[in-house]
Amino acid sequence: MADKEDPKKGKRSKGTSKEVCGYPLSIFFIVVNEFCERFSYYGMRAVLVLYFKYFLRWDDDLATSIYHTFVALCYLTPILGAIVADSWLGKFKTIIYLSIVYAIGQVAMAVSAIHDITDTDRDGTPDNMTFHVVLSMVGLLLIALGTGGIKPCVAAFGGDQFGDHQEKQRRTFFSVFYLCINGGSLLSTIITPILRAQNCGIYSKQKCYSLAFGVPAALMMVALVVFILGSGMYYKAKPQGNIMLDVCKCIGFAIKNRYRHRGNQYPKRKHWMDWAEEKYEKLLIAQIKMVLKVLFLYIPLPMFWTLFDQKGSRWTLQATTMNGDFGLLVIQPDQMQTVNPILILTLVPVMDSLIYPLIKKCGLNFTPLKRMTVGMILAALAFVCAAVVQLQIDKTLPVFPSASQVQLKLLNMGNKTVTVQLQDNEPAILAPAQVSDEYFVFDTDQITVLATAGSTTVHRGISFTKGKRQKLLLPLDLNKEWVQIDDLNSKPEEGNNAIRFVNGKNAEVNVSSAVANFGIIQPFHYSNYSLIKNGKVTFNLQSGSESCEYSRDFGFGSSFTFLIPNNLTFGQNCQEEITSAEDIKPNSVHMALQIPQYFFITAGEVMFSVTGLEFSYSQAPSNMKAVLQAGWLFTVAIGNFIVLIVAELAKLPKQWAEYVLFASLLVAVCIIFSIMAYFYTYIDPAEIEAQFKKVDDDDEDDKSKQQKAEIEMVKRDSVSSSEDDEKSK
Ligand SMILES: CC(C)C[C@H](NC(=O)[C@@H](N)CC(C)C)C(=O)O
Predict the structure, then answer these.
(1) Could you tell me which residues belong to the region Disordered (predicted)?
(2) Which of 40, 101, 513, 659 could pair covalently with 216 via S-S, beta carbons 3.0-4.6 A apart?
(3) Domains of the chain, with CATH numbers?
């Protein structure tokens, strides 16, 4: 479909799309497509690590590295999609073909998660894991190719739908486009984990990963259908040959030609790309200059994404050491990430309709590059907030033993009071079934213990392992074996609570609950730790025919050792009789304290990312719109790699210091960027291209006039010579 001139306005209107309130109707299909596609992508991503861990049974390290490799790949493939679109197929066809690849990938993921396919013995676990691993890896590769490939094309294709006179509408389109990204991702990150938690299966019921991947697959098909439905209304810019090859050749020639003419005798040219003038069209050279100018400006930008992408890693880890109890709502650490899209949905309209117009009214020219600079500063501020929160958390964290220390708690399993003297410490007096409140700290691994219960006194030298927290279980009869057990040496992961039972009774006790089973605990022995989520848990204790219940409310990140006392009576409930030792206190710093850092990073994202998206489109030459979008997304990929490098190189012992380091790096980069931005002159690519086309047309006109004149002359000459011939005859 070709451009159409609107003779009345003298401006270009595009496509055959009707306009609604000044906007081409075709963009409706594009934003709905983006909504569904982002639902599909983020929905699948939300359960991916859990699928690796619990379905494919990979360990944490493998699951995390494959996950990050996949995410990085999704931001590297845009360059492929952009080259195909701008040089070969055009954006429309590229989006269609790659969306099909993408949907096939999603279906492959959904199929790979059906355990019944290879569950020949019908025990609920897949029997041919290779099948599931291979299929899911193929699926992920196709998804990375699809999602990355179409990403720069969809944004640029949306921008293409607007005429040159619709700059304001195009800016609003990019804001709405961003809203759709976040609306889709927010919904899917809430829905797919719920789908995963369902049980499904033919032979045996298991967690329903196939449904959690199947719904995103269906949404990707919807995205494709919606996009095709708009087909008749789109403006489809034609690809202009292998533009990337031409660009590379032209740059190569300019460099070679400049090198060949490096002596003083050769006059200087305004720009090094002008050295390609001997061989290449001025229009192409001008377009390359535009792209290079923007790409140069992109160099410092990955640092923003380095900070931005730590929401999903460092900040989520930080949340695991915090208290997520919001009264009516209990927020899990990874759910805090949804604050970002929620804030986007509110901040984008507020910025567009309130803040930016207000700034304009104050007479300030808040240019795109200024907005991006402010966005960076806000992101740095977010990390300062994260550091302050971290300092608060650090104050509440337990002090674990250093490599040369031993920490020790005493637990009296007997029914007499015991007096214990550890080395030269004050004697500790423990009532029956009592645990010492605090850990005793020693700088030696050999400790002498003097324990007295009634008339029995026992003196022992005991070896401990340095760097560990341990419990010494004092038996009913002090002359019997004293059991040493290891306590946790770090906070339980993901905000879980680590719980275990010690059985002080002379009989076996079976401890169970709805969320964890501790099994049968032998007399004077202990269970393993079980990880349980926050909330109220009722434990059922059973010994022979007797049983009782014990309930407890858990917060986040605590560790408890419960002692079943020797004289437990097994009444209706054992609430008063069970002794608890709080080995690690629950998280006390509230997760709400993370909201300021989320607010600043999201406000920064709106100023940086939404503006950058539109800036990349508006400053790109017409034949390289998708390529520049891909360049923009490439900064995201580089940003992700920087996280790994800086965290690895810096290896700071304190997390707050790492946050301050990242904030300082971004401020430094921001200063460089603002200097670069100061020297950047905004251009209107369409205007520049039009000028060159006009020059070419004028040249063409001159050439054809000259040719016509020459032909006329030849004609006249031949006529006059034939007349002369006639005459001479
Ligand atoms: C360029 C991308 C990083 C931008 C965009 N991401 C977002 O809008 C995030 N606020 C989404 C959130 C769920 C992480 C995207 O296209 O995904």
Answers:
(1) 694-729
(2) 40
(3) 14-241 (1.20.1250.20), 281-398+588-683 (1.20.1250.20), 406-584 (no CATH)
